[in-house]
Amino acid sequence: MDSIVVRGNGPLSGQIPIAGAKNACLALMPATLLSDEPLTLTNAPRLSDIRTMTELLASLGAEVTALQDGKVLATSCHGEINPVADYEIVRKMRASNLVLGPLLARLGHAVVSLPGGCAIGARPMDIHVDALAALGAEIELKDGYLHAEAKGGLKGATHEMRFASVGATENFLMAASLAKGTSVLKNAAREPEIVDLAKCLRAMGAQIEGDGTSEIVIEGKDRLHGATHPVVADRIELGTYMLAPAICGGEVECLGGRIDLLESFCEKLDAAGISVEQTHTGLKVARKNGRIRAVDVTTEPFPGFPTDLQAQMMALLCTAEGTSVLEEKIFENRFMHAPELVRMGANIDVHGGHATVHGVEKLKGAPVMATDLRASVSLILAGLAAEGETVVSRVYHLDRGYERVEEKLAGVGAHIERVKAN
Questions:
Q1: What predicted TM-score, i.e. pTM, was given to this entire model?
Q2: 74-129: pLDDT as tens digits
Q3: CB-count burial class (<10 Å; 0-12, 13-18, 19+) for 162
Q4: Which positions are annotated as active-site residues?
Q5: N or C: which end of the chain has fewer CB within 10 A?
């Protein structure tokens, strides 16, 4: 397996281009199943998860062609559609479940493997099931697959989710776009990726109002047409690279960044002593004066602090002046990066969903292991500020969510390289 070698070398300077959002693109791609006309996505990220979704859509009968070095995805689904999303592909990626709503809407039936072959209770697919059942779908679990059928087609309905699930909101939006009548989703997720999907669906002819709020109204259409849509900037990649100069000093402009994508995150950076300035081309980030200050962080659904930036924020707070408390309220077992940061000299105590970080003067380079996507990049960030060399192993996680991370960080002066496995 490849590893990333990072050597702490002081302040960074320059510009980092921010890619299109992985989580937005993974929801936009299945929208091609809703129409027999082409859907073209621009500003697409070049990631392994995008290749996995391409593989899944191809298995269902869609065509996906990567153009302009992968930055443009030309998709089409005008032929015969296979309603079965096989476990061998779905197991690779959680977002594979986003084909369920579109398949049901287009065909009236679908057979989709549970992500990772797990039980519904272990991962909240029940929220998706309840949302689609409200539209008239009958869904049962058999042998690790969700067998869904909507006899006579989906019908508009009002449904309130018990949790503002992003994926379930996306599945409901796509399914309701072709349902008969009006649908209302209450306690809907408000993330920018939801707004981006709604924009794309409207470009395809859907009638949607209220996206970005907790109540979305969809007027079902008989059919949707083709469209071209630019993928929104990746707010998680944006937040990650904003933390690079915050951790090791200097000034970096993140091209394509917008404060409205990360307002709560920017508020925490300001409290910690980090300057964030909106420019004509992006966000300029710099440490204000001296050592950063400790801050407390609680992850919440948008517009709260993103769970996908918690690990990276912990890396920053390891060298803050004072004690910080991070509370993880979205996902369990999301502090697995903490023991690896401790290997680098951090002082962290984890108790259930809380992590207490006592700031230290300096981190020290060490061999560490990535446990998941966001943990992997948090260790790279920590390595940027550490004395000596940090070797991050198992970085295959990294390639699922960050394109060309070594190239982007090296471009602003970081000493970083990928070491290929023998």
A1: 0.90
A2: 999 999 999 999 999 998 888 899 999 999 999 999 999 987 533 333 456 899 99
A3: exposed
A4: 118
A5: C
